[in-house]
Write a structure and sequence with these properties.
By secondary structure, the protein is α/β, with parallel strands linked by helices. 41% of the residues lie in helices and 24% in strands.
Length: 364
Protein backbone atom coordinates (compact mmCIF):
# COMPACT_ATOMS: atom_id res chain seq x y z
CA UNK A 1 0.00 0.00 0.00
CA UNK A 2 1.12 3.54 -0.66
CA UNK A 3 1.43 6.01 2.20
CA UNK A 4 -1.57 8.06 0.96
CA UNK A 5 -3.82 4.99 1.08
CA UNK A 6 -2.69 4.23 4.62
CA UNK A 7 -3.22 7.82 5.78
CA UNK A 8 -6.67 7.87 4.16
CA UNK A 9 -7.51 4.69 6.10
CA UNK A 10 -6.39 6.32 9.38
CA UNK A 11 -8.66 9.32 8.72
CA UNK A 12 -11.67 7.21 7.59
CA UNK A 13 -11.50 4.80 10.52
CA UNK A 14 -10.76 7.49 13.10
CA UNK A 15 -7.57 5.76 14.27
CA UNK A 16 -5.29 7.69 16.62
CA UNK A 17 -1.99 6.19 15.37
CA UNK A 18 -0.44 4.24 12.51
CA UNK A 19 2.57 1.95 13.15
CA UNK A 20 4.87 0.82 10.32
CA UNK A 21 7.34 -1.91 11.35
CA UNK A 22 9.38 -4.47 9.44
CA UNK A 23 7.94 -8.00 9.76
CA UNK A 24 4.39 -6.85 10.60
CA UNK A 25 1.53 -5.48 8.49
CA UNK A 26 0.65 -1.81 9.08
CA UNK A 27 -1.06 -1.47 12.48
CA UNK A 28 -3.75 1.04 13.47
CA UNK A 29 -4.55 2.07 17.03
CA UNK A 30 -8.35 2.17 17.24
CA UNK A 31 -10.00 3.25 20.51
CA UNK A 32 -6.75 2.51 22.33
CA UNK A 33 -6.31 -1.03 20.87
CA UNK A 34 -3.78 -2.16 18.23
CA UNK A 35 -5.33 -3.66 15.06
CA UNK A 36 -3.26 -5.12 12.18
CA UNK A 37 -4.38 -4.56 8.60
CA UNK A 38 -5.06 -7.65 6.50
CA UNK A 39 -2.01 -7.15 4.28
CA UNK A 40 1.39 -8.88 3.94
CA UNK A 41 4.07 -8.00 6.53
CA UNK A 42 6.21 -4.99 5.62
CA UNK A 43 9.74 -5.54 4.32
CA UNK A 44 12.75 -3.26 5.09
CA UNK A 45 12.30 -1.81 1.57
CA UNK A 46 8.62 -1.08 2.30
CA UNK A 47 9.21 0.87 5.50
CA UNK A 48 12.10 2.77 3.91
CA UNK A 49 9.94 3.78 0.92
CA UNK A 50 6.98 4.76 3.14
CA UNK A 51 9.30 6.83 5.35
CA UNK A 52 10.91 8.63 2.39
CA UNK A 53 7.47 9.52 0.98
CA UNK A 54 6.74 11.83 3.93
CA UNK A 55 10.13 12.76 5.40
CA UNK A 56 12.12 15.83 4.36
CA UNK A 57 15.83 15.66 3.49
CA UNK A 58 16.66 17.45 6.76
CA UNK A 59 14.77 14.89 8.85
CA UNK A 60 16.23 11.97 6.86
CA UNK A 61 19.69 13.33 7.63
CA UNK A 62 18.74 13.61 11.31
CA UNK A 63 17.53 9.97 11.20
CA UNK A 64 20.80 8.79 9.66
CA UNK A 65 22.97 10.74 12.09
CA UNK A 66 21.01 10.37 15.32
CA UNK A 67 18.81 7.31 14.78
CA UNK A 68 15.47 9.17 14.96
CA UNK A 69 13.59 12.28 13.90
CA UNK A 70 10.25 13.86 14.82
CA UNK A 71 8.20 16.23 12.67
CA UNK A 72 4.67 17.24 11.74
CA UNK A 73 3.14 17.29 8.26
CA UNK A 74 -0.18 17.94 6.53
CA UNK A 75 -2.02 15.21 4.60
CA UNK A 76 -3.49 17.61 2.03
CA UNK A 77 -6.40 19.42 3.65
CA UNK A 78 -7.69 16.23 5.28
CA UNK A 79 -5.54 15.98 8.42
CA UNK A 80 -2.24 16.71 10.12
CA UNK A 81 0.07 14.06 11.55
CA UNK A 82 2.85 14.07 14.12
CA UNK A 83 5.51 11.65 12.91
CA UNK A 84 8.34 9.83 14.63
CA UNK A 85 10.77 7.93 12.37
CA UNK A 86 13.44 5.82 14.06
CA UNK A 87 15.83 2.92 13.57
CA UNK A 88 15.45 -0.39 15.37
CA UNK A 89 17.42 -3.57 14.63
CA UNK A 90 18.96 -1.65 11.75
CA UNK A 91 15.59 -1.10 10.04
CA UNK A 92 13.41 2.00 9.77
CA UNK A 93 10.13 2.19 11.72
CA UNK A 94 7.52 4.94 11.55
CA UNK A 95 4.78 5.99 13.99
CA UNK A 96 2.23 8.57 12.85
CA UNK A 97 -0.17 10.24 15.31
CA UNK A 98 -3.33 11.77 13.82
CA UNK A 99 -3.84 15.33 15.03
CA UNK A 100 -7.56 16.22 15.05
CA UNK A 101 -8.22 18.90 12.43
CA UNK A 102 -10.57 20.82 14.72
CA UNK A 103 -9.68 22.33 18.05
CA UNK A 104 -11.90 20.77 20.71
CA UNK A 105 -13.98 22.61 23.31
CA UNK A 106 -13.69 22.20 27.08
CA UNK A 107 -16.92 20.18 26.98
CA UNK A 108 -15.63 17.85 24.24
CA UNK A 109 -12.47 16.92 26.14
CA UNK A 110 -14.31 16.73 29.47
CA UNK A 111 -12.28 19.45 31.19
CA UNK A 112 -14.27 21.31 33.89
CA UNK A 113 -15.30 24.81 32.81
CA UNK A 114 -13.86 26.17 36.10
CA UNK A 115 -10.40 25.90 34.47
CA UNK A 116 -11.34 28.85 32.21
CA UNK A 117 -11.03 31.17 35.23
CA UNK A 118 -7.35 30.22 35.58
CA UNK A 119 -6.67 31.23 31.98
CA UNK A 120 -7.52 34.87 32.70
CA UNK A 121 -4.58 35.22 35.13
CA UNK A 122 -1.91 37.70 33.98
CA UNK A 123 1.01 35.54 35.16
CA UNK A 124 1.92 32.17 36.63
CA UNK A 125 2.59 28.57 35.62
CA UNK A 126 -0.05 26.04 34.52
CA UNK A 127 1.22 22.47 34.07
CA UNK A 128 -0.53 19.75 32.08
CA UNK A 129 0.97 16.36 32.88
CA UNK A 130 0.51 12.68 32.14
CA UNK A 131 2.02 9.75 30.22
CA UNK A 132 2.78 9.89 26.49
CA UNK A 133 -0.35 9.73 24.34
CA UNK A 134 -2.77 10.84 27.08
CA UNK A 135 -4.00 13.94 25.24
CA UNK A 136 -1.85 16.66 26.87
CA UNK A 137 -1.31 18.43 23.54
CA UNK A 138 -5.05 18.46 22.82
CA UNK A 139 -5.82 19.91 26.28
CA UNK A 140 -3.18 22.61 25.85
CA UNK A 141 -4.45 23.45 22.35
CA UNK A 142 -7.97 23.90 23.78
CA UNK A 143 -6.65 26.24 26.50
CA UNK A 144 -4.53 28.26 24.07
CA UNK A 145 -7.49 28.59 21.69
CA UNK A 146 -9.66 29.87 24.57
CA UNK A 147 -7.07 32.57 25.44
CA UNK A 148 -6.63 33.43 21.74
CA UNK A 149 -10.41 33.75 21.26
CA UNK A 150 -11.28 35.64 24.44
CA UNK A 151 -8.30 37.94 25.11
CA UNK A 152 -5.98 40.27 23.21
CA UNK A 153 -2.73 38.52 24.09
CA UNK A 154 0.49 37.76 22.23
CA UNK A 155 0.85 33.98 22.55
CA UNK A 156 4.16 32.29 21.71
CA UNK A 157 4.29 28.49 21.47
CA UNK A 158 7.52 26.48 21.43
CA UNK A 159 6.77 22.97 20.16
CA UNK A 160 8.52 19.84 18.91
CA UNK A 161 6.88 19.46 16.42
CA UNK A 162 3.98 21.90 15.91
CA UNK A 163 0.81 19.83 16.03
CA UNK A 164 -2.28 22.04 16.10
CA UNK A 165 -2.15 25.09 13.86
CA UNK A 166 -3.76 28.18 15.43
CA UNK A 167 -5.04 31.22 13.54
CA UNK A 168 -4.81 34.78 14.86
CA UNK A 169 -8.10 35.64 16.59
CA UNK A 170 -8.47 38.30 19.28
CA UNK A 171 -4.86 37.54 20.14
CA UNK A 172 -1.71 37.20 18.03
CA UNK A 173 -0.19 33.71 17.96
CA UNK A 174 3.42 32.88 17.01
CA UNK A 175 4.22 29.15 16.76
CA UNK A 176 7.89 28.14 16.75
CA UNK A 177 9.14 24.63 16.03
CA UNK A 178 12.26 23.15 17.65
CA UNK A 179 14.68 22.03 14.94
CA UNK A 180 13.09 24.32 12.33
CA UNK A 181 12.69 27.79 13.84
CA UNK A 182 15.06 27.37 16.80
CA UNK A 183 17.44 24.86 18.35
CA UNK A 184 16.09 24.06 21.83
CA UNK A 185 13.14 24.70 24.17
CA UNK A 186 15.33 26.68 26.59
CA UNK A 187 16.64 28.89 23.77
CA UNK A 188 13.07 29.47 22.58
CA UNK A 189 12.00 30.50 26.09
CA UNK A 190 14.95 32.83 26.51
CA UNK A 191 14.30 34.55 23.18
CA UNK A 192 10.52 34.64 23.74
CA UNK A 193 11.00 37.09 26.60
CA UNK A 194 12.30 39.67 24.06
CA UNK A 195 9.28 39.20 21.78
CA UNK A 196 6.66 41.00 23.90
CA UNK A 197 4.75 37.85 24.96
CA UNK A 198 1.77 37.68 27.30
CA UNK A 199 1.41 33.89 27.13
CA UNK A 200 4.12 31.26 26.47
CA UNK A 201 3.54 27.56 25.81
CA UNK A 202 6.54 25.27 26.36
CA UNK A 203 5.80 21.98 24.59
CA UNK A 204 8.04 19.99 26.92
CA UNK A 205 9.91 20.89 30.10
CA UNK A 206 12.48 18.18 29.55
CA UNK A 207 15.61 19.59 31.23
CA UNK A 208 16.73 21.75 34.14
CA UNK A 209 17.47 24.80 31.97
CA UNK A 210 13.96 24.76 30.43
CA UNK A 211 12.23 24.23 33.81
CA UNK A 212 14.22 27.10 35.32
CA UNK A 213 13.43 29.42 32.39
CA UNK A 214 9.70 28.54 32.57
CA UNK A 215 9.49 29.33 36.30
CA UNK A 216 11.38 32.61 35.79
CA UNK A 217 9.06 33.62 32.93
CA UNK A 218 6.01 32.84 35.09
CA UNK A 219 7.46 34.98 37.90
CA UNK A 220 8.22 37.95 35.67
CA UNK A 221 4.68 38.62 34.46
CA UNK A 222 3.84 35.96 31.87
CA UNK A 223 1.25 33.18 31.81
CA UNK A 224 3.27 30.04 31.05
CA UNK A 225 1.93 26.62 30.04
CA UNK A 226 4.17 23.56 30.25
CA UNK A 227 4.04 19.76 30.18
CA UNK A 228 5.74 17.00 32.14
CA UNK A 229 5.52 13.20 31.88
CA UNK A 230 4.25 12.73 35.44
CA UNK A 231 0.94 11.48 36.82
CA UNK A 232 -0.59 13.24 39.82
CA UNK A 233 -0.12 16.77 41.15
CA UNK A 234 2.13 15.86 44.10
CA UNK A 235 4.48 13.86 41.85
CA UNK A 236 4.60 16.77 39.41
CA UNK A 237 5.76 19.20 42.12
CA UNK A 238 8.34 16.66 43.35
CA UNK A 239 9.61 16.07 39.80
CA UNK A 240 10.25 19.79 39.27
CA UNK A 241 12.02 20.27 42.61
CA UNK A 242 14.08 17.07 42.21
CA UNK A 243 15.40 18.35 38.85
CA UNK A 244 17.43 20.96 40.75
CA UNK A 245 20.65 20.45 42.75
CA UNK A 246 20.02 19.98 46.48
CA UNK A 247 21.39 23.40 47.42
CA UNK A 248 18.85 25.12 45.11
CA UNK A 249 15.76 23.13 46.08
CA UNK A 250 14.62 25.34 48.93
CA UNK A 251 14.70 28.41 46.68
CA UNK A 252 12.78 26.56 43.92
CA UNK A 253 10.12 25.45 46.43
CA UNK A 254 9.58 29.10 47.34
CA UNK A 255 9.47 30.19 43.68
CA UNK A 256 7.11 27.37 42.73
CA UNK A 257 4.77 28.06 45.66
CA UNK A 258 4.33 31.61 44.34
CA UNK A 259 4.29 30.98 40.57
CA UNK A 260 2.39 27.67 40.19
CA UNK A 261 -1.29 28.34 39.39
CA UNK A 262 -2.41 24.75 38.77
CA UNK A 263 -1.29 21.23 37.87
CA UNK A 264 -3.68 19.26 35.66
CA UNK A 265 -2.81 15.58 35.33
CA UNK A 266 -4.63 13.39 32.82
CA UNK A 267 -5.05 9.86 31.49
CA UNK A 268 -6.90 8.61 28.39
CA UNK A 269 -9.08 5.48 28.34
CA UNK A 270 -11.37 3.54 25.95
CA UNK A 271 -15.03 4.37 26.59
CA UNK A 272 -17.38 1.65 27.85
CA UNK A 273 -20.61 3.34 26.69
CA UNK A 274 -19.74 4.02 23.03
CA UNK A 275 -16.85 4.17 20.57
CA UNK A 276 -14.01 6.52 21.33
CA UNK A 277 -11.94 7.48 24.34
CA UNK A 278 -12.51 9.59 27.43
CA UNK A 279 -10.04 11.57 29.55
CA UNK A 280 -9.71 11.37 33.33
CA UNK A 281 -8.29 14.40 35.14
CA UNK A 282 -6.66 15.31 38.43
CA UNK A 283 -6.85 19.04 39.10
CA UNK A 284 -4.77 20.84 41.72
CA UNK A 285 -5.19 24.59 42.11
CA UNK A 286 -2.57 26.34 44.23
CA UNK A 287 -4.43 27.70 47.24
CA UNK A 288 -2.59 29.32 50.17
CA UNK A 289 -2.67 25.94 51.96
CA UNK A 290 -1.09 24.10 49.00
CA UNK A 291 1.48 26.90 48.51
CA UNK A 292 2.53 26.35 52.15
CA UNK A 293 2.85 22.58 51.62
CA UNK A 294 5.10 23.17 48.59
CA UNK A 295 7.22 25.72 50.47
CA UNK A 296 7.57 23.50 53.55
CA UNK A 297 8.42 20.34 51.55
CA UNK A 298 5.22 18.55 52.61
CA UNK A 299 4.01 17.51 49.16
CA UNK A 300 2.84 14.15 50.59
CA UNK A 301 -0.10 16.11 52.07
CA UNK A 302 -1.16 17.69 48.76
CA UNK A 303 -3.64 14.88 47.96
CA UNK A 304 -5.55 15.58 51.19
CA UNK A 305 -5.80 19.26 50.25
CA UNK A 306 -7.08 18.35 46.77
CA UNK A 307 -9.66 16.02 48.32
CA UNK A 308 -11.04 18.78 50.54
CA UNK A 309 -10.77 21.42 47.81
CA UNK A 310 -13.70 20.52 45.55
CA UNK A 311 -15.22 23.96 46.15
CA UNK A 312 -12.13 25.45 44.42
CA UNK A 313 -12.59 23.09 41.43
CA UNK A 314 -10.05 20.49 42.58
CA UNK A 315 -10.44 16.73 42.21
CA UNK A 316 -8.20 13.69 42.67
CA UNK A 317 -7.69 11.43 39.65
CA UNK A 318 -9.20 8.42 41.48
CA UNK A 319 -12.34 10.40 42.34
CA UNK A 320 -12.66 11.51 38.70
CA UNK A 321 -12.24 7.87 37.55
CA UNK A 322 -14.85 6.73 40.08
CA UNK A 323 -17.33 9.32 38.73
CA UNK A 324 -16.71 8.07 35.17
CA UNK A 325 -17.19 4.45 36.33
CA UNK A 326 -20.49 4.97 38.16
CA UNK A 327 -21.76 6.89 35.12
CA UNK A 328 -20.81 3.79 33.05
CA UNK A 329 -18.38 5.71 30.84
CA UNK A 330 -15.40 3.44 31.64
CA UNK A 331 -15.08 -0.20 32.72
CA UNK A 332 -14.07 -1.35 36.20
CA UNK A 333 -10.86 -2.87 34.78
CA UNK A 334 -9.91 0.39 33.05
CA UNK A 335 -10.58 2.40 36.22
CA UNK A 336 -8.40 0.11 38.34
CA UNK A 337 -5.59 0.10 35.77
CA UNK A 338 -5.36 3.91 35.78
CA UNK A 339 -5.97 4.40 39.53
CA UNK A 340 -3.30 5.94 41.77
CA UNK A 341 -4.53 3.98 44.84
CA UNK A 342 -6.35 0.87 43.53
CA UNK A 343 -6.97 -0.56 47.03
CA UNK A 344 -8.72 2.61 48.26
CA UNK A 345 -10.77 2.75 45.07
CA UNK A 346 -11.78 -0.90 45.47
CA UNK A 347 -13.08 -0.11 48.99
CA UNK A 348 -15.00 2.88 47.62
CA UNK A 349 -16.61 0.78 44.86
CA UNK A 350 -17.62 -1.88 47.40
CA UNK A 351 -19.22 0.74 49.66
CA UNK A 352 -21.07 2.24 46.67
CA UNK A 353 -22.29 -1.20 45.51
CA UNK A 354 -23.45 -2.10 49.05
CA UNK A 355 -25.37 1.19 49.28
CA UNK A 356 -27.02 0.59 45.92
CA UNK A 357 -28.01 -2.94 46.97
CA UNK A 358 -29.41 -1.70 50.31
CA UNK A 359 -31.38 1.05 48.56
CA UNK A 360 -32.81 -1.43 46.02
CA UNK A 361 -33.72 -3.90 48.79
CA UNK A 362 -35.39 -1.11 50.82
CA UNK A 363 -37.49 -0.12 47.81
CA UNK A 364 -38.41 -3.77 47.25
Amino acid sequence: MEINQLLQLVVERGASDLHLNVGRPPVLRLNGRLRSLNTPPLTPEDTMALMKAITSERCQQELNEGGSSDFGFAFGDKARFRVSVFKQKGHVSVVLRLIPSELLSFEQIGLPASIKNLLTKPRGLILVTGPTGCGKTTTLATMIDFVNTEHDRHIITIEDPIEYYHNHKKGIISQREVGVDLETFSEGLRRALRQDPDVILVGEMRDLETIQAAISAAETGHLVFGTLHTTGAARTVDRIIDAFPTDQQEQIRTQLSVSLIAAISQVLMPRADKKGRVAGFEIMITTDAIANLIRENKTFRINSSIQTGRKFGMILLDDFLFDLFINQKISYAEMMQKAQSPEDLQTKVKAYTDNQTSAATGRG
